[in-house]
Amino acid sequence: MQTIAILGTGLMGSSLGLALRKRNVPVRIHVYARRAETREVAVNLGIANAVFADPAKAVQDADLIVFCVPVLTIPELAKACCTGLKSGAVLTDVGSTKACLNKLMPDVLAGTGAEFIGSHPICGSEQQGIEAGSSDLYERAVTVVTPSMLSNEASLEKVSNLWKNAGSSVVVMDAVAHDKILAATSHLPHVVAAALALSAGDSGLFCGSGFRDTTRIADGSPQVWSDIVRTNAPALTESLKTFRDRLDSLEALIQEGDGEKLANWFAAARDKRKELLR
């Protein structure tokens, strides 16, 4: 039976364990968590067969290791795992940026006989912590897997099958291309939501559903999003420029005061949204 080690038991990690359990995937699950209370909850929820306070012990005998922690935490946590990794182990993650890890992880794993292939399940929630986990989080989600030129085909299949077993469909993509696309479709919306929340002043009494819906994702983990922005700065900067240009165009229309042109601007935005989400 395959052993999977999940390192980090927030929303993504706990949901992965719950998804594999719900779908009766024949695996043994090891869980690493720093806090004793979290390890206890992981056992009580049925997420883990065994829990560990030491990451190196958590990955012993593991065929597949999944890092469910902020992106810039992954290399350091992987270093702490190296003494426990078996040759042939495959490491992956759930981070929202991929090119950075593809550069850093080969040096971290040098000499271990283990391999890293990045993953990004395009799903989630602003909710945090192990109790936020859902067995259906990955259901019908798209998970992007980003092998390098040197990735082993069997390792790629192992990572892809993990996400399929959790309920996802899988798309294999170049890491740099992934980061550019996600800068526009995921990272930009989050920073815009955060900026909007900071721009509302003290008018909470008058914040209706539009404000709540638009800023919901600003409730996400500050550490996770700090790491995402730092590791995808060039692509996000480009997306912010495009967004700023759109705002400038809108401001010019507002100053012009032409109702028909404004209506056409909003109609184009509505149609584009429908096209993207179709």
Describe this structure in words.
This protein has 278 residues and is of the alpha/beta class. It folds into 2 domains: 2-173, Rossmann fold (3-Layer(aba) Sandwich); 177-277, 6-phosphogluconate dehydrogenase C-terminal like domain (6-phosphogluconate dehydrogenase C-terminal fold), CATH 1.10.3660. It is built from 11 helices and 9 strands. The protein has helices at residues 11-22, 36-44, 55-58, 74-81, 99-108, 153-165, 175-199, 209-215, 222-231, 233-256, 259-277, and strands spanning 2-7, 27-32, 50-52, 64-67, 90-93, 115-116, 118-122, 142-146, 169-172. The strands form 2 sheets. Strands 3-2-1-4-5-6 form a 6-stranded parallel sheet, with helices on both faces. Helix 4 packs parallel to helix 5 and helix 7 (175-199) packs across helix 10 (233-256). The longest helix has 25 residues, at 175-199. It starts with a strand and ends with a helix. The relative contact order is 0.11. The model has no long low-confidence stretch (mean pLDDT 95).
Order of strands across the widest beta sheet?
Answer: 3-2-1-4-5-6
Query: Averaging pLDDT over every residue, what do you get?
Result: 95
Distance between the termini: 40 Å
- Any guess at the CATH architecture of the largest domain? 3-Layer(aba) Sandwich
Count the domains: 2
Number of continuous helical runs: 11
Structural class comes to alpha/beta
List the helices and strands and how they pair.
Blueprint (H helix, E strand, L loop, with lengths): L1 E6 L3 H12 L4 E6 L3 H9 L5 E3 L2 H4 L5 E4 L6 H8 L8 E4 L5 H10 L6 E2 L1 E5 L19 E5 L6 H13 L3 E4 L2 H25 L9 H7 L6 H10 L1 H24 L2 H19 L1
Parallel strand pairs: 1-2, 1-4, 2-3, 4-5, 5-6, 8-9
Antiparallel strand pairs: 7-8
